[in-house]
Amino acid sequence: MRWLWWFILLGIACGASWSVPEPGPDDARRAGVTEETLAQGRRLYVFRCGGCHRLYPPSYARRSEWQGIVQRMGKGLASEEVELIQTYLSTFALDAVK
Ligand code: HEC
């Protein structure tokens, strides 16, 4: 029955990244950017923002709130990085147009 525990652990580990959606072509279209831009934003979000705390799902905040949060949290980042992360989070934000 040991495999069952591994299965459950794997499920928990995967669940952590499921809350950070992978962008698809439809998401890129409604955001008005390329899919690559969104994918880059997601990568940066995971690498730059997951170090100190759990990754908050993009639906944690509204678009306008994310702008301020990323400004505040991304003080050490390049402005292009901040922008990519903001674009990604805004696309999946609580009040994003789906
Ligand atoms: C150097 C460590 C560190 C990094 C890197 C970091 N955070 Fe935070 N974050 C914190 C701490 C500490 C808090 C709790 C205190 C606070 O709210 O300021 C927090 C709180 C938060 C909150 C909840 C509070 C709120 O305002 O709603 C969000 C959302 C958040 N961070 C997003 C981000 C994002 C997005 C990034 C990447 C740009 C990021 N964090 C990178 C340390 C960090």
Can you walk me through this structure?
With 98 residues, the chain is mainly alpha-helical. The chain has helices spanning 2-18, 25-31, 35-49, 63-73, 79-91. It has a domain at 24-91. It is built from five helices and no strands. Helix 2 crosses helix 3 (35-49) and helix 4 runs antiparallel to helix 5. The longest helix has 17 residues, at 2-18. It is globular and about 50 Å long. The protein starts with a helix and ends in a 7-residue tail after the last helix. Heme C binds next to helix 3 and helix 4.
Radius of gyration: 15 Å
Distance between the termini: 42 Å
What small molecules does the structure contain?
heme C
What do the pLDDT scores average to?
A: 89
Q: What's the tally of helices?
A: 5
Major beta sheet, specifics? none
Protein traits:
binds heme C; 98 residues; 5 helices; mainly alpha; 0% strand; single chain
Question: How would you summarize what this structure contains?
Answer:
This protein has 98 residues and is mainly α. Helices cover 64% and strands 0% of the residues.
Which secondary structure elements does this structure contain, and how are they paired or packed?
Layout: H1 2-18, H2 25-31, H3 35-49, H4 63-73, H5 79-91
The structure holds heme C.
Heme C (HEC) binds next to helix 3 and helix 4.
